[in-house]
Design goal:
24% strand, five-stranded mixed beta barrel, 7 helices, alpha/beta
């Protein structure tokens, strides 16, 4: 059988010719953006609900240091810590494009909190799932990790977060996800197969973000906000008060406390 072309010409140890530092350098030059750092902790907010709520409440301001051509970064204070949030980073390739640029701009920990469809309701314990491993059904991860390697959270981060889940006091539970780049090709047969793999949810970013993090040794944590069953019933996609923003802020605060301990 012929190997899929996406797996050809992957030279994993070799550095890229095109890199985020150079792109951001040109953006700063063209747009008169000062060379300064973004917050050390940043959040990807694919739905944009958190950023919208923070702006509405007057809690967030646009970051002057962020030089990305394709996105906006807002900052807010949480428990005395400045946090950056980027809305609408939807999909594997865009999420990793943004992540690459964040980590060369001063970010040291990236938290992704994405809406996810529930695959196995019987495995769902709470509304937030800490994604420990994501099945790779997208293209971006194959540019960072060989196909035989799993896309999973780092052992060190998992060890820190697991202490919280083991004592039962956390707002999240550990789960395996399915990352797809074709949300409208979630067929019943595919869903059945994922259930057999003990997959809890389906989303669009985690496997690529974890592959990037493993390859470049960056700190990335991916959460799934379990909000829907792929719109198979009317009234689906309810995230909670303020479109889930209050719960999301509490989750971020919880992670900050864990990281400080």
């Amino acid at each position: 059988m012929r190997k899929p072309s996406i797996l050809n010409n992957k030279h994993y140890p070799e550095p890229s010719v095109f890199n985020p530092e150079n792109l951001l350098r040109e953006s700063r030059r063209q747009n008169n953006i000062p060379k300064c750092e973004v917050p050390k902790i940043c959040v990807l907010d694919p739905d944009g609900d958190l950023a919208d709520w923070l702006k509405k409440e007057g809690k967030a301001s646009k970051d002057k240091c962020w030089a990305c051509y394709h996105s906006e970064l807002y900052t807010f204070e949480l428990s005395g810590t400045k946090i950056g949030v980027i809305p609408f980073a939807v999909g594997a390739s865009y999420a990793v494009l943004v992540a690459e640029q964040l980590f060369v701009s001063g970010c040291e920990l990236l938290i992704s909190i994405t809406s996810a469809g529930i695959i196995s309701e019987k495995l769902v314990e709470k509304k937030f799932a800490l994604i420990t491993e994501a099945l790779r059904d997208e293209g971006t991860s194959y540019h960072y990790l060989p196909p035989e390697e799993p896309s999973s959270i780092s052992e060190n981060l998992l060890k820190q977060l697991r202490l919280e889940t083991e004592n039962g006091g956390s707002s999240f539970f550990e789960a395996k996800s399915w990352t797809t780049d074709a949300p409208y090709r979630e067929t019943q047969s595919a869903i059945v197969s994922m259930k057999k793999e003990d997959v809890v949810c389906v989303e669009m970013e985690a496997s690529a973000l974890y592959a990037f993090a493993r390859a470049l040794e960056k700190k990335v944590i991916c959460f799934a906000h379990l909000t829907n069953t792929m719109a198979q019933s009317e009234g689906d996609f309810e995230k909670g008060e303020e479109f889930g923003s209050l719960d999301t802020v509490n989750l971020i605060s919880e992670v900050l406390e864990i990281m400080r301990s």
